[in-house]
């Protein structure tokens, strides 16, 4: 009986012949052999030879193998652990303990100034309003948290801050420390901040570009964020001066563009992709929201906004179509109630789509990026 532990809990496996240990070790005699063997496990969110990446696999003196996936990926952990268990049961690998963990790595950005405590920033944007960008941002942040990461959410939609309503925090006000540092509002397990926590929506809506940009810079840099693997930013819709300024000043690791299948929305999403290319911010891919409607009575799918538009746009820019999220009355009811779908309906088809999106976003972000060198704390001795 062999213990196999992962992601904070363990599973004990038994059954099947383990083979002869000496025979197995003849084929896996080094760390490189082990990494090559592990790389036989393939998955859409992994690259070839993924286990050969630096710091992913380590072997301790007592022959325990630690696998640290460098992005949020609890679903992937379950699949990998099952694969290893089957290989062990068949005698394809020596009977050792595998410890599989999630340890998201910080990635380099074009803007060198980092946000204290934040490893990676994911900007969720859209070329126009009304495509479900904020709903996507909220559920994406919650899904990443469920995928094994520490997550924050910043509502930067200065002209329509809807995150407080979606999270059921319309009455929340942040505590301010030392007359400067705002404490984020905890909601459903993530740290959040929004201009909606500070001012009335009517007041924020009349702000001009420079005032709005300054306010958002303060929200980002004067919030006392806890240590975060990912900060998801719900960006203002559009591709004007404020969006361009934010993209240039914020150390964004990657952007997700939300659109619908409609031609008008796709035209604006095309402008968004061009804007991020101009400021050298990597676009992780597209999310086609309201991809189809699911009838609440019969369950029939209907493509009321068209078919295949986001896929065509993704191909045009060489991007990935990350997800196609359906339109369903339950999702609207959940956000109106302040309990987003990922929390309200953890077993639903919609939540599964968001969980797949979360892992795909974090995986693509890592494989497309360049890890930052880990800082080393040095203590000077007099």
From TrEMBL:
List the source organism: Vibrio metoecus
UniProt-recorded Gene Ontology molecular function terms? 4 iron, 4 sulfur cluster binding; ATP binding; ATP hydrolysis activity; ATP-dependent FeS chaperone activity; metal ion binding
| Record's keyword terms, sorted | ATP-binding, Hydrolase, Iron, Iron-sulfur, Metal-binding, Nucleotide-binding
Q: Which CDD domains match?
A: Mrp_NBP35
Q: Briefly, what is this protein's role?
A: Binds and transfers iron-sulfur (Fe-S) clusters to target apoproteins. Can hydrolyze ATP.
Question: Which parts of the sequence bind ATP?
Answer: 127-134
- Per the database entry, which stretches of residues form a coiled coil? none
Q: Which family does it belong to?
A: Belongs to the Mrp/NBP35 ATP-binding proteins family.
**What Gene3D superfamilies does the entry give?**
P-loop containing nucleotide triphosphate hydrolases
Q: What is this protein called?
A: Iron-sulfur cluster carrier protein
Q: Set out the biological process GO terms recorded for this chain's protein.
A: iron-sulfur cluster assembly
What are the annotated GO cellular component locations?
cytosol
On subunit structure and binding partners, the annotation says: Homodimer.
SUPFAM superfamilies the record matches = P-loop containing nucleoside triphosphate hydrolases
The record, for NCBIfam families, names: PRK11670.1
